[in-house]
Amino acid sequence: MKTKRFLGYILGIAIASAIAFFIHQFVLVQLEIPPYANSIVLSYVINTLLAIAVLALLFLLRKRLKDQLGFLFMAGSLLKFAVFFIVFFPIYNADGDLSRLEFVTFFIPYATCLFTETYSAIKLLSTIE
What we know:
Layout: H1 3-30, H2 40-60, H3 69-92, H4 100-126
Helix pairs in contact: 1-2, 1-4, 2-3, 2-4, 3-4
């Protein structure tokens, strides 16, 4: 796989995340909910960076650990859950309640990045010789 194609996948993750962020912000404003509450920017940034990091790891190890790439991808998902519980859960649960809005603030960027990362990983894995 050429580095140029890989950079395109990274750009795709970043663009999808940015589009989701702006749509998310628009919906919050329309619902008259503070658009920057619940660490939304941090959630998008961390999820995007983790998705890019996992994809970069797969790209770097694609030839050396060809048979273990699926497990590395799953380990990346485990890492994202760990980050949620280490970084976001204490913030969201500070009042003793994880509200639906707080959950959605984390889940939308998580799902967006997971979808684009999975698509990119499938493409990456299908081009390995």
